[in-house]
């Protein structure tokens, strides 16, 4: 995605928080609604009277079969046609169908806007909680490693059993796992925010 080749794990850095003036799914739903409105207008305009020009040019050039004389006749016609689609019921049906599709598109747009607003607000509220969890997890790792160092001295001096010592090692690993999980949740939130705003991740994360 970034064009960068890595030979080892590297921490990601948040360049800036994903944001935007509109949600990408809402923009797509708005385009569908606009298209549905244009379709209603198109089908309504078909019911209006139309004025058109029609015509043809045709000729007959040849020899008479009984007199062998040359004959040329032209059959040209031009007409000004005014149409009133008064009795075409399919036009009313087509317009009604287009209006139903327009209402569906409007309802979908409204629901999408509500859903995206709720999702964006939920992600915004969740991010500070996750960041606080990262801070607490980092502190927990430091505390667990300090206790582990004390336990190492105690087990070498014979004042602690190996079973008790292994619990301290387990606590360090559990704290590290909690930190990694919190960081993963943070990047998941960032990715989801980038998706709903239509923001390129290349400009958000490095």
Q: In words, what does this structure look like?
A:
- The chain has 206 residues and is α+β, with helices and mostly antiparallel strands.
- The protein has a single domain (24-200), classed as Outer membrane efflux proteins (OEP) (Up-down Bundle), CATH 1.20.1600.10.
- 61% of the residues lie in helices and 14% in strands.
- It has helices at 24-45, 89-156, 162-197; strands at 50-63, 70-83.
- Strand 1 (50-63) and strand 2 (70-83) form a beta hairpin.
- Helix 1 (24-45) runs antiparallel to helix 2.
- The longest helix is centred in the middle third of the chain and has 68 residues, at 89-156.
- The model has no long low-confidence stretch (mean pLDDT 85).
Classify the helix fraction into a percent range: 55-70%
Which runs of at least 5 residues are low in confidence (pLDDT < 50)? none
For the record, give the distance between the C-alpha atoms at the N and C termini, rounded to a whole number: 11 Å
H-E order? HEEHH
Strand order of the biggest β-sheet: 1-2
- Overall, the morphology is elongated
The averaged pLDDT comes out at: 85
CATH class: Mainly Alpha
Q: What's the number of structural domains? A: 1
Query: Approximately how much beta-strand content do the residues carry?
Result: 5-15%
Main beta sheet strand tally, sense and closure: 2 strands, antiparallel
The CATH H-level homologous superfamily: Outer membrane efflux proteins (OEP)
- The CATH topology comes to Outer membrane efflux proteins (OEP)
Which radius of gyration do the C-alpha atoms yield? 38 Å
CATH architecture: Up-down Bundle
Number of helices: 3
